[in-house]
Amino acid sequence: MIITELNSEILKNRTKKFAHQCVKYSLDLPSSVLGIHIKRQLTRCSTSVAANYRAACLSQSKRGFVSKLSIVIEESDECIFWLEFALDENLPNKNLDQLIKEAKELTSIFIASRKTIQKNLK
Q: pLDDT, tens digit, for every residue of 54-81?
């Protein structure tokens, strides 16, 4: 997927929705040391995906966009890690499979977009 202006708006909304869903999921985690740790990490990285994608869209150059998009990729991959970790630890499973699927899809979209832009920069 090449990120166009229309796709950009769709992805802004999609990443924000994903962040909201991750925050809601993390609110259901237990108040154990592990539950609190995952809650904080997942909240931080999922909201970072949305915030940094918005920042990427405001980049003044394609190189700036690629740089910010790289941060988005790292954060979305970290979301996958924490969601899978919660699954491995048998923590609440409500919507967990769907959240993992969405995190993987977003990561794939951002990786493909970065590759396309980097190829066009050469």
A: 999 999 999 999 999 999 999 999 999 9
C-beta separation of 87 from 93 below 8 A: yes
Give Cα 24 distance to the centre of its chain: 15
CATH number at residue 20: 1.20.1440.60
Burial class (CB in 10 A: 0-12, 13-18, 19+), 104: middle
**Pick from 53, 56, 42: nearest CA to 16:** 53
pTM: 0.92
What range defines the domain where residue 62 resides?
Answer: 5-121
- Look up residue 58 and give its DSSP letter: T
